[in-house]
Design goal:
88 residues, alpha+beta
Length: 88
């Protein structure tokens, strides 16, 4: 699962397998916590993160929604996703 961004101890990864993973989403990891985030709605679909990290990930997703969707499309074609600027 390619890492597309890292910030404040949070790792953002994306994986795509045709027909297996709708809707478009990414995975956020923080220590032993992990969450799956819907790109279109910027909502957690599954799992959880601590409160502060949840806010950081969702804010980052809102800022980079277009880039995340572009990466999702690339991965759907079997291509490597681009790295996305971390939250600063």
């Amino acid at each position: 699962m390619p890492t597309i961004s890292m910030f404040f101890g949070i790792i953002i990864r994306m994986y795509y397998s045709p027909g297996e993973h709708p809707p478009a989403h990414f995975h956020a990891y923080y220590g032993e916590f992990k969450a799956t985030v819907d790109i279109a709605t910027c909502e957690i679909l599954q799992g959880d993160l601590p409160g502060r990290q949840t806010k950081l990930v969702l804010a980052w997703a809102e800022l980079h929604k277009e880039e995340l969707m572009a990466d999702w499309s690339l991965m759907g074609r079997g291509e490597e996703p681009f790295k996305i600027q971390p939250l600063q």
